[in-house]
Amino acid sequence: MEMACTLNCSGKNSSLLRIPASWGKYAWSIGRDDPRRAIHALKAGTALTLVSLLYILEPFFKGIGKNAMWAVMTVVVVLEFTAGATICKGLNRGLGTVLAGSLAFLIELVAVRSGRVFRACFVGAAVFVIGFAATYLRFFPKIKKNYDYGVVIFLLTFNLITVSSFRQEDVVPLARDRLSTIAIGCVICLFMSLLVLPNWSGEDLHNSTVRKFEGLAASIQACVDEYFREQNKDDDDLDRQEARASIHTGYRAVLDSKSSDESLAHYASWEPRHSMHCYSYPWQKYVKLGSVLRHFAYTVAALHGCLESEIQTPPSVRSLFRDPCTRVAREVAKVLQELAVSIRSHRRCAPDVLSDHLHEALQDLNSAIKSQPRLFLGSKHARSANNRMLMELNSAKNTMTSRTTLHSFKTDTTSLLEQKNTRTDQPAERNERPTLRPTLSKIAITSLEFSQALPFAAFASLLVEMVVRLELVIEEVKNLEGAANFREFNGNDHLVIDLTSKEKTRNRNGDPLHPVSPAAE
User: Fold this and answer.
1) Could you tell me the domains of the chain?
2) pLDDT tier, 415 (very low <50, low <70, confident <90, very high otherwise)
């Protein structure tokens, strides 16, 4: 019994030890994915330590007093991950505090000259009117988009100063101390965000757009390769699940990027223009490009749905169209990779980015489909044979139905006589039934190839639709390049990415393509 208790206790202790270890491993993975997160956490801790000195050190506490806590609150709510978000919140908080303090001071000047009863009524009415107006103002689209946080701070500060001034004789020192502590907190936040390893919203938006192109290219290539991969019993299910999960990750990141794109574009408009990625950039063009990419990602998601469908294309059909479909997917992925490279390097894409190779791949796919008309249309002989068999089957059914309906109109004597001959009639029926089954089987055989080709027809149509949407993506990229003043394209910038061999080749002044080593890059 004691041994069992000891084993249970040791098992519980080991499980308790594994929980912190798993948490630590997960926290390490979060920082490893983006080291800027750990740096931002260090910056926030340093800012809170600096601002807390106003409350801890005696000289600062004597000058500011308990209002130093407003500086701590300001750092907590204003300091954000990117510089644009910090500037936006800092200016909103400062502007809201100044306006609220000024308005509260004017109301106090009017109310202090009246009696106590009138002063209470006047303060209550002012709180109601200002609260109603500020809350209703938050529903305006432009206010809600740019100054919603400032309106909240204005409403909070105004009510705190106005209501507290009713029990306090002089409200000017209170407003001055709170404004000064909030200003100190905002200055510390701006210093940490702009001067200590800054993170720019514009840079994040730019890099996320590049990652969208790369993720879609990887998803398309992996999806087509997985669709035409031969099914073997020796295949590892875990590897297949990981491959399909990578497909889902690539396009899902694009579909879920709407809110992040809009917020990054909004905060990037607040950032100073001296940043490398913040000079005369039309940030809303990035948002529009993200919208076009989301429509493109819906097609990729539908392509992935064909892969996950329970109705699978037979291997004989897949082998006929593996090469043309793979070529189309590879060329589309190359175009997306070329667009990603051009956006990353702030240059215009190649004029022939939609190369002739893609059109040739589409023509090959079209020729392959036309070479197998029986799969998609069926031959005329098969269709006429099916129609003739169906007519014979329907006529046989009508004859049997007429026989059964005539029985109901016969007299009782006739029905009794037929009951005696039931055993003699049954063998005839048994002889008739087998003659109908071969007819049905012939119809099933002639239509089997057509039904098996339907899943691939959907898959091929999605590939063609993807090429059509790719042209819209290229057009939107060119609009972004023109609005952002990207540098012009030249022959030395032409980069062709071979997705099969993972090698990069450059075209220099019309010379033949040759591999480029990583060291040369």
Assistant:
1) 31-195 (no CATH), 201-229+236-375+448-484 (1.20.58.220)
2) very low
